[in-house]
Design a protein that fits this description.
Elements lengths: L3 E10 L2 E11 L4 E6 L5 H8 L7 E6 L2 E2 L4 H4 L2 E4 L15 H11 L5 H10 L13 H14 L4 E5 L7 H18 L2 E5 L12 E6 L2 E7 H6 L1 E7 H7 L5 E7 L2 E7 L12 E5 L2 H9 L4
Parallel strand pairs: 3-8, 3-9, 6-7, 7-8
Antiparallel strand pairs: 1-2, 1-4, 4-5, 9-10, 11-13, 11-14, 12-13
């Protein structure tokens, strides 16, 4: 397997840039977490990486070949996105079994036995129409398509939306099992960050149409801290550090810092130092300052 490479990706809607010159290298054999606020451009980016949406500028390549309108490359990619029930005369009246049968024709490596096993495990009624499925059932269908596609690069957009905590835990277990057995690459976009954090080898944070960072998850957490205390002490302790997301309460202050290689937090000041989880790091980087 080769890298999937995006260079200079721009996407414009109605004269407004949604993605701003994105460069991204996805290596095979990893589980990536893609996180960002609503409207940050995550779904648009995923759709361009998988040639479901043309870029306004820039290129996406796999094994040096463009992905756009290239069947030889597209057979290695799967973007399983949220299903739309639609309403009224536009209701999606296709039955689940019909949808899965059509999906199988798009993916040359489709695993029919896996799809059947997951349908049974999720207790999914394949005779139901898409328009009649609950939010959780719609998510189950997208998960089945993603896993059974056996695509080398598989992208999932909010796969656990509508699932209860037990079903979400089962999904991540299935994801890790499939990754361990096959070495496939998965990119998972989700708003439910903390319960998925241990699954992500690398995290990609998208903010306002740009890649804010792409880093090994554990290495990012190892250099992320929250420092709090009297404002003057905090300012002294962080004078030479990169500071994010300041919080003030009276004369007290709290900040998030991301240490660079070789940096450390001075220990001569009267401040409290706490390690952060991935969700807190994300909020510090992308949340509004208070």
């Amino acid at each position: 397997m080769s890298n999937l490479t995006a260079k200079g990706i721009v996407k414009t809607y109605g004269g407004k840039d949604v993605l701003h010159g994105i460069d991204l290298e996805l290596e095979p054999g990893k589980i990536y977490g893609l996180i960002g606020r609503n409207g940050a451009g995550k779904t648009t980016l995923l759709s361009i990486l998988t040639a479901q949406n043309p870029a306004s500028a820039g290129t996406v390549t796999y094994e040096g070949q463009p992905v756009w309108e290239n069947p030889d490359v597209l057979r290695h990619l799967c973007f399983s996105r949220e299903l739309n029930q639609m309403t009224g005369s536009n209701a999606n009246t296709m039955k689940v079994k019909e949808y899965l049968r059509i999906a199988a024709t798009f993916f040359p490596y489709w695993d029919k036995e896996m799809a059947a096993r997951l349908v049974k495990e999720f207790d999914l009624d394949v005779k139901k129409r898409i328009s009649k499925l609950s939010k959780g059932m719609l998510s189950m269908v997208t998960i089945i398509v993603a896993l059974a596609s056996k695509a080398e690069f598989t992208f999932l957009d909010e796969p656990v939306a509508g699932l209860d905590v037990v079903a979400r835990e089962r999904f991540y277990n299935l994801l890790v099992e499939e990754f361990t057995e096959t070495g496939r690459t998965f990119v998972v976009s989700t708003h439910i960050i903390e319960e998925a954090a241990d699954t992500f080898e690398e995290v990609i944070i998208v903010d306002k149409g740009k890649i804010l960072l792409k880093e090994n998850t554990q290495e990012l957490l190892d250099r992320s801290f929250h420092i709090s205390g009297h404002e003057e002490e905090v300012d002294k302790a962080t004078a030479f550090l990169d500071v994010y997301h300041e919080e003030h309460l009276g004369r007290s202050k709290g900040v998030t810092v991301l240490l660079k290689p070789g940096q450390s937090i001075p220990d001569q000041y009267d401040v409290s130092i706490q390690k952060l989880n991935l969700q807190k790091v994300f909020v510090a980087l992308c949340g509004e300052e208070s």
